[in-house]
Design brief:
The protein is 73% helix and 2% strand. By secondary structure, the chain is mainly alpha-helical.
Amino acid sequence: MRTDTGGMLRRIQLGNALSAFGSGFTVPYLFVYVANVRGLGPGTAGAVLAAFAAAALLVLPFVGRVIDRRGPGPVALIGTAAASFGALGFGLAASAPTVLAAAAVMGGGIAVVQPALATMIVRCSTATSRSRAFATQFFLNNLGMGLGGLLGGQLVDEAHASSFTLLFCVEAAMFVGLAVVLATVRLPSPPRPPDAGTVVSGMDASGTDGTVGAKAIGLRNRPGSEWGALLRDRPMALLCVLGFVLFFTCYGQFESGLAAYGVEVAGISTSTLGLALFANTAMIVLTQFVVLRLVEGRRRSRVIALVGAVWTVAWIAAGVSGLVPHAQAVATGLLIGTYALFGVGEAMLSPTVAPLVADLAPAGRVGQYNSAFALVKQLGVSVGPAVGGLMIASQVYAAYVLLLIGCSVAVSVLALVLGRRLAPEHDCPGSRVVARSLPPERSGTTADIVSRTDVGAPVGAGAPTDSQPPADAEVRGRLAATVR
């Protein structure tokens, strides 16, 4: 029986929007809730945020293997149950130990859900539809978070703890809604890893021309060697380094270093800071599908390099805002522009980075690759606030801005280096370059051909899978020739 992958994908996106909507109710108010409403102080509030990060870093190295062995559906359901239980406990907790325990359970659950959802999206998409699928997920995340935050702000009252309990109950209910939706999803079967006797010619995992024989495939698929194989996959290892710099440079600074810089140096008010955050979300929501249309068919590595250029301009604007605090309107406009430019870059990343991670994953390893990249993301957003906050507290403002400008430039450089190691079907799926490399006897559009072929799957297999999308040995050889 053929799986309706389009319908399944719409259900996954619906569930994702529900959970984002629920998170929007609580995320902006976590610090205030712990420190002021429960009276536990800023130290405990900071420890709560650290507990979220620590729980995620603890579970992410292991969740990928479970996803690949048990399937993303059951793992996602376990994650949603933990996240819902943690959110409910958060709303009821009144002491430091209970609020920290709830934060750890909730953070671990959300960390499990993220790579599981990404793997489900990969299973229900093809190489050519994957960019749009992940862009839609990112759009719905931001729209849901924005609407949830807007509605939550109308319900919350710092003088009444029960109003915060209501917010956390809503979030818990939204995670239950996500679980209900995901329970109805029927995913297509994943491809089987290559047999021990299989020989695949063309582009190997390191991005060089060669032959992968039975011994190499056996090592790649041997239980217990997954992390070693991932680290030896040079394009993926380089993408992880690039991912850390990306998340450190942008997300790791939003609510810490950049926010503190805006208040302490540029002299903007906290209410204006909220307007800047709104400008970031609004820019993503308004431009996501326009940006998607512009980047489709472009080399992913060059799009990421352009993100680095956009963020370089953003950090220069932030630096200038700190030089003109006497001209408050100019400083405010520059800082709001910084957040808006970050939104443009984020809209460019959503259809490029996550699909690239999925396309680089060998057959049967997409869960591990997704969780590895989620781990890199968590490291970036954990280290970023620590470094940014420390530099702002030390009043080394110029060094802080120069560091982030340098990181933005590094994003562009790393992306261009990565592009030289990527095969055409990974860097630009569905492009004319890939189409010209296909033999005449394989008729049909590039999208048709790519969508019905996968590494590790029998030639001609047609179901959308969670592995790389190049074709058989002959086609891979032609693609390798294109790179040369």
